[in-house]
């Protein structure tokens, strides 16, 4: 259920935020100066197609998947799948397309790239990766992550992930993403040198902020609820589709019994034999067609799964906002406490119970010099706290502006993609029904000629 659009400027009037982590250069020989882009633009400036300059200059594909055996970090032998990433210039030299780069990546490296993007671009709805292990499968579909059909669907999903990042107006300019496509050796070391793991927010800290924040932004609260509902709806849809696939598979395969019976019957008939044999053949073709039909259906299911996983990406943006709001509230509370302490020292009155107040009653008052020294320290801390609070306020405003701009971009993308996927799925179902009608029409003609 779609939430009504909310005005991102309703509560805050932020200044433009310069995107984090922009590259020094990006595919210089192919993209040229365009890779730098305008540094003062926030996410969401322009339309999706206007910002897809990378995809206008190069083609990105995950063209192959290869099963390999090697040793992991624990020096234990393991079997894994590697994927071949190719980037090819769209522009032609002497009538020939130039292959700019070709390298192999493991799924874990795709995970590392996405984790980096989540940390450095917390205001962006980062595209999700395809599932690591098959979910919502019907009984004839293998759940083995090394199954060739599953590996092929994941290859398509990984290619889609790279295209999503390359078409994003901010993420496409990231240097680590550029190196992911072009630098096979030492890429992991380059990512780890950014120190992004140290900047990642812990789950415990995020959970604490969720429950302790006093003034959550209603827009992000509603967005969080929407992402939960979106995930629930798509999960139910995928489960229903899996149950339908199971039953449909059984219905189609049972038609194979018609073929067997008609074939046996034709053996004892002279005049009707040819017609029965032909009808049986049509039934066999009908029964075997379900395998290709359900394989095609899996690709539509994968499109739905992408937005199932996008729901978590939306929640990640909401959690980051809750953390920033919680830090802001804690800074304001600490500043108010220091101001109260300073006022009490200056006036000699204590408004609330404190350990310092009890100490004063037991051991006597401080000397004027001691009091002045403490007031001076508190005033310095208050000045520093006011600057921090101002900085956190500005950072929060910038985050809200940039996050909401990217959320609006995501909504436009989601509405377009899901509409196209559902229409294509409906067209496929119509085509499947027409093929069934054609089979029975052919069988009818066979019976008529007997």
UniProtKB/TrEMBL annotation:
It is a peripheral membrane protein. Its main location: membrane. Keywords: Acetylation, Endosome, Lipid-binding, Membrane, Protein transport, Transport. The keyword Transport applies. Residues 61-187 form the PX domain. It comes from the Eukaryota. The keyword Protein transport applies. One of its GO terms (cellular component) is SNARE complex. InterPro entries: AH/BAR_dom_sf, PX_dom, PX_dom_sf, PX_SNX4, SNX4, SNX4_BAR. Residues 1-50 are annotated as: Disordered. SUPFAM superfamilies: PX domain. Transmembrane segments: none annotated. GO terms for molecular function: epidermal growth factor receptor binding; insulin receptor binding; leptin receptor binding; phosphatidylinositol-3-phosphate binding; transferrin receptor binding. It is found in: Early endosome membrane. One of its GO terms (biological process) is protein transport. Belongs to the sorting nexin family. Involved in the regulation of endocytosis and in several stages of intracellular trafficking. Plays a role in recycling endocytosed transferrin receptor and prevent its degradation. Involved in autophagosome assembly by regulating trafficking and recycling of phospholipid scramblase ATG9A. Heterodimer; heterodimerizes with SNX7 or SNX30. Interacts with WWC1/KIBRA. Identified in a complex with WWC1/KIBRA and dynein components DYNLL1 and DYNC1I2. Interacts with BIN1. This is Sorting nexin-4. It comes from Physeter macrocephalus (Sperm whale). The lineage of its organism: Eukaryota, Metazoa, Chordata, Craniata, Vertebrata.
């Amino acid at each position: 259920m779609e939430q009504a659009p909310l005005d991102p400027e309703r509560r805050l009037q932020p200044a433009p935020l310069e995107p984090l982590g922009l590259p020094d250069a990006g595919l210089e020989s192919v993209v040229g100066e365009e890779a730098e882009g305008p540094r003062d633009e926030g996410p969401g400036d322009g339309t999706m197609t206007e910002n897809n300059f990378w995809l206008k200059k190069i083609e990105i594909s995950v063209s192959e998947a290869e099963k390999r055996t090697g040793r992991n970090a624990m020096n234990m032998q393991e079997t894994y799948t590697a994927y071949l990433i190719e980037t090819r210039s769209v522009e032609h030299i002497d009538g020939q397309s130039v292959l700019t780069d070709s390298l192999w990546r493991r799924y874990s490296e795709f995970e590392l790239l996405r984790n980096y993007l989540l940390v450095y671009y917390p205001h962006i709805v980062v595209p999700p990766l395809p599932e690591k292990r098959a979910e919502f499968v019907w009984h004839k579909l293998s759940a083995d992550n090394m199954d060739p059909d599953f590996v092929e669907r994941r290859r398509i999903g990984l290619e889609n992930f790279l295209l999503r990042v390359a078409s994003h107006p901010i993420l496409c300019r990231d240097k680590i993403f550029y190196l992911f496509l072009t630098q096979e050796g030492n890429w992991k070391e380059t990512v780890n040198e950014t120190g992004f793991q140290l900047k990642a927010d812990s789950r415990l800290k995020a959970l604490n902020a969720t429950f302790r924040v006093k003034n959550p932004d209603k827009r992000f609260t509603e967005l969080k609820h929407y992402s939960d509902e979106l995930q629930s709806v798509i999960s139910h849809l995928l489960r229903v589709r899996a149950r339908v696939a199971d039953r449909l598979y059984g219905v189609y395969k049972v038609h194979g019994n018609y073929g067997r019976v008609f074939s046996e019957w034709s053996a004892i008939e002279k005049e009707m034999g040819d017609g029965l044999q032909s009808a049986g053949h049509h039934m066999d073709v009908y029964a075997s067609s379900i395998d290709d039909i359900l394989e095609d259906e899996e690709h539509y299911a994968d499109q739905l799964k992408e937005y199932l996983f996008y729901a978590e990406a939306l929640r990640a943006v909401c959690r980051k906002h809750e953390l920033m709001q919680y830090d802001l509230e804690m800074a304001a509370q600490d500043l108010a406490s220091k101001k109260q302490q300073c006022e009490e020292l200056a006036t000699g009155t204590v408004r609330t119970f404190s350990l310092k107040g009890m100490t004063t009653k037991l051991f006597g008052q401080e000397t004027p010099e001691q009091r002045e020294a403490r007031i001076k320290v508190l005033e310095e801390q208050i000045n520093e706290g006011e600057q921090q609070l101002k900085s956190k306020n500005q950072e929060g405003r910038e985050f809200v502006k940039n996050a909401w701009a990217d959320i609006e971009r995501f909504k436009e993308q989601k509405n377009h993609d899901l509409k196209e996927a559902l229409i294509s799925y409906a067209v496929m179902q119509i085509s499947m029904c027409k093929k069934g009608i054609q089979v029975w029409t052919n069988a009818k003609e066979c019976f008529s000629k007997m």
